[in-house]
Design a protein that fits this description.
Blueprint lengths: L1 E2 L4 H7 L2 E2 L2 E7 L5 H16 L3 E5 L4 H10 L5 H5 L3 E5 H5 L15 H8 L1 H4 L4 E5 L12 H18 L3 E7 L5 H10 L2 E8 L2 E8 L9 E8 L2 E4 L3 E2 L1
Parallel strand pairs: 3-7, 3-8, 4-5, 4-6, 6-7
Antiparallel strand pairs: 1-2, 8-9, 9-10, 10-11, 10-12
Length: about 230
């Protein structure tokens, strides 16, 4: 099953994102990448009739919801129907008060995946992890082996349960070795950047698309959301 990105000029080139895959989204500040992943999450609900789970790590759910609404990604009605759920990991990492004392110790990357990612993947949901940046601020923790094991498990689970997982990360913070590992296991790779004051979406890899990549997709941020006019080969 193919999940449209929600942007016709791009979907006309890549058709969309296949279900049962991992999506890697690297970004730079100010690129409004979250509107792109939000639209994919909405498309997943509409196409598969299965829920989208947005795991918030960098910001609170209320802030993410407002940011999405500002760029015309409307999720409120799906939240009310329990088809879109925010999982508030931000609160745990910020050590805010919680009724569950166990929450306060479940803040390492393995626990986040075990308790807040894998259960939803096993239900066939689209899981958006926004973003993994926090876990790589401390480069002394030798994350290469740990993230490799997690991604191997994740890849196996998205295949088995016909789900979708979108992983975002801040390009300038995550070490290059980690980026290489993430992109190695990802089936689809997108990068949001700024070049000569232009916003650029680079499509580097899409499962099932073997020719003509990468695509460079200029876009604009407008009150109606991201505006993509064309998508062309480099």
């Amino acid at each position: 099953m193919i999940i449209p990105t929600g942007y016709p000029p791009l979907d006309g080139k890549i058709k969309g994102i296949p279900e049962s895959s991992i999506v890697s989204i690297s970004f730079k500040p100010g690129t409004a990448y979250y509107a792109f992943i939000g639209k994919i999450g909405l498309s997943y609900i509409k196409v598969t009739q299965k829920p989208t789970i947005y795991v918030t790590i960098d910001r609170s759910p209320s802030e993410i919801a407002e940011m999405l609404k500002t760029l015309n990604v409307q999720v409120d009605s799906y939240v009310n129907q329990n088809k879109w759920t925010f999982v508030d990991v931000f609160r745990l990492l910020a050590r805010e008060e919680t009724e569950n004392t166990l929450d306060l110790v479940l803040t390492d990357i393995e626990s986040i995946f075990q308790f807040y990612v894998f259960p939803y993947i096993e239900q066939g949901s689209c899981v958006i992890i926004d973003s993994l940046t926090y876990f790589f601020l401390d480069t002394l923790k030798n994350y290469e082996g740990r993230i490799t094991k997690l991604l191997l498990s994740l890849k196996s689970k998205v295949r088995k349960y016909s789900s979708l997982c979108i992983i975002s990360f801040l390009e300038s913070i995550v070490p290059s070795k980690i980026t290489e590992i993430l992109n190695h296991y990802a089936d689809n790779i997108f990068n949001f950047s700024i070049a000569k004051d232009r916003l650029i979406l680079s499509v580097l890899k899409v499962k099932g698309v073997n020719e003509e990549l990468p695509y460079v997709v200029p876009y604009e941020i407008t009150p109606l959301g991201l505006r993509i006019a064309t998508a062309g080969k480099v």
